[in-house]
Amino acid sequence: MLETLDTIPWQQLQHAYGDASEVPGWIRDLASPNKEVRQQARSHLGSSVYHQGTVYSSTASIVPFLCELLDEEQVAHKLWLLQLLTSIAHGSSYLDVHYRRPQERNTPEFQARLAEELKWVRQAKEAVSAGYPTYLNLLHADQPRLRAMAAWTLSCCRSHADEVIPTLKERLKQEDKLSVRASMIMTLGRLMPAIKETHDYFMHLLKKQKKPVLTIAAALAYALLAEEDTPRQVVRILLESYEQPPEVKAKFATLPFTDVNMDATLSKAFCAIGFSVAPLVIPTLIKALPHCDALSSVVLVDNLLYLALEGRTLSKDTTIDDLSDTQKDVLTALVKNKHIWESANMLITVGHYFPPQHNLELSLWNREDIVRFLKGKPVISSDEEEIQRQQPSDKEAVSKKSS
């Protein structure tokens, strides 16, 4: 195990904090019999070669060794290893995420660095995909949670979909644990092509399911796959899912693919289906807001605003009179549900749909800003207008300078 670990030129590769020379030691420590050593290794790897959603030049190189560890029966924390691999497969470039201003991005130097980082992203995704034999093997593990996570990790293996899909379909017929079946269904939705045979397969799956969680998972997978071609029957299933009892929602929240909770996760499906369903689904999403916590509300509000505003950012000249009744209802609901503003991320999420205020480059909108807008104030803040009035024009500035 790990015999080729030292053949990688780690000192020439980078992670979030510098060169990757410590990485092979951390990987070996994952197999240590000492629990504290293993915990330290997980902490180091989970914050360096993968750091807050971004990947680096060393990231792809660690993946085969993580798969080696997963293949060894005595290695602990396999669930964490699969979670790390799934995160890596969805990783992004640091530059692409953190540098958004055109003046920063539109230089030859930046574009060259960005191209290099995007290459690391592709390499990391392909490295995870290439590990599909390991994930398929783990579908036979004793622990249902491990089988479920392995099934979901297979959703990252699109470049090997032809090898994965037949095995996954066969295992789905044999699997009896709800969480594993739900994860298999979701992964099949990610991997199967959007053709008639796939639509027929999912309609058949929907008819067969007896348990609510599996019905919801099949409808969700189908909607994310079919997008605007999603049948209205499937849309109805998703909408009715918001009325499920707490025990069903609690079970759904434990699934590997759930984004915080069931209500937030299902709202993503409506965005995939498109704006045509907005009038139908927006009242249901508004009704779900009081039941969201600070984390899930960020996801739900983002998707709610996306549907209500059709993905557009309001201009600085927009007033409340320019909005439809439905759009006003959405903003009013954001004000009424005070608890959704507990997360600072909500300011960024809402600000994504409004122009920046207070001469800031980043748009941050809080509950009071929405209240002011609903009362008829313009999108641009009064204090910003005052600052702009006080600032001399270019012509005035030149005149004052010359005098």
TrEMBL record:
Residues 392-403 have a biased composition (Basic and acidic residues). Residues 383-403 are annotated as: Disordered. InterPro entries: ARM-like, ARM-type_fold. Gene3D superfamilies: Leucine-rich Repeat Variant. It comes from the Bacteria. This is HEAT repeat domain-containing protein. It comes from Dictyobacter aurantiacus. The lineage of its organism: Bacteria, Bacillati, Chloroflexota, Ktedonobacteria, Ktedonobacterales.
